[in-house]
Amino acid sequence: MALRYEQNQQQPVLRKMTIDDIPEVMEIEHEAFTLPWTEEAFRNELTMNHFARYMVMVIDGRTIGYAGMWTIMDEAHVTNIAIREAYRGRKLGEALLVELMNWALELGMLRMTLEVRVSNEIAQQLYMKLGFSNAGIRKGYYSDNNEDAMIMWCELAEAQGHLEGSVE
């Protein structure tokens, strides 16, 4: 991963999520989303869903971000991705998504999809930068305010150029 750090900034470590990570993941989940997943949902993802793949980003022993996907056939579906509010704006979310995309490629996935709120233009810009494109709208997808979701797709092989050294 080609991240740049200021001298006093610790480098993040990316690793697979474990059950022990759930309490800190829940803190981030509640910070980041108006419709947070439950602790039980994450526990089920890690222990019972053989399609699920989750990773955490850790700095100085503290989980500061996480991302997950389902890998089905040759497609990866991003389930969630979030960074602690105090760590946003440092391209760490981008690094996390790049790593998730690379993991999907390693697992033999050909394409990746996700949904994003139509109002979340910052996330949409990041996804487009990494090779995603708008594939449609899911009307009323988010039940907290009935907001539409933009469906985005990425052909991972075509996006590989975006992934090498993307985060600088």
Please describe the structure with a list of short key phrases separated by commas or semicolons.
Aminopeptidase, 168 residues, 5 helices, single chain, transferase, alpha+beta, AcTrfase_RimI/Ard1, disordered N terminus, 7-stranded mixed beta sheet, EC 2.3.1.128
Describe the overall structure:
Helix content is 31%, strand content 35%. The protein has 168 residues and is α+β, with helices and mostly antiparallel strands. The protein has a single domain, classed as Aminopeptidase. Helix 3 (92-106) packs across helix 5. The protein starts with 12 loop residues before the first strand and ends in a 5-residue tail after the last helix.
Describe the secondary structure blueprint for this structure.
Blueprint: E1 13-16, H1 22-32, H2 39-47, E2 52-59, E3 62-72, E4 75-83, H3 92-106, E5 111-117, H4 121-129, E6 133-142, E7 147-155, H5 156-163
Parallel strand pairs: 4-5
Antiparallel strand pairs: 1-2, 2-3, 3-4, 5-7, 6-7
Helix pairs in contact: 3-5
Concise structural overview:
This is Ribosomal-protein-alanine N-acetyltransferase. This protein has 168 residues and is α+β, with helices and mostly antiparallel strands.
Order of helices and strands: EHHEEEHEHEEH
> How would you describe the shape?
globular
CATH topology (level 3) name: Aminopeptidase
The level of helicity is 25-40%
Largest sheet geometry = 7 strands, mixed
Helices, by number, come to: 5
Strand order of the largest sheet: 1-2-3-4-5-7-6
Structural class: alpha+beta
Q: What is the total domain count? A: 1
Q: Which architecture name does CATH use?
A: 3-Layer(aba) Sandwich
| Total count of strands | 7
Tell me the radius of gyration: 15 Å
Mean of the pLDDT scores? Answer: 90
Give the termini distance in whole angstroms: 9 Å
CATH superfamily: Gcn5-related N-acetyltransferase (GNAT)
CATH class: Alpha Beta
Which ranges are low-confidence, i.e. pLDDT below 50, for 5 or more consecutive residues? Answer: 1-8
Strand content: 25-35%
InterPro entries: AcTrfase_RimI/Ard1, Acyl_CoA_acyltransferase, GNAT_dom, YpeA/RimI_acetyltransf
Domain N-acetyltransferase: 12-157
Family: Belongs to the acetyltransferase family. RimI subfamily.
EC number: 2.3.1.128
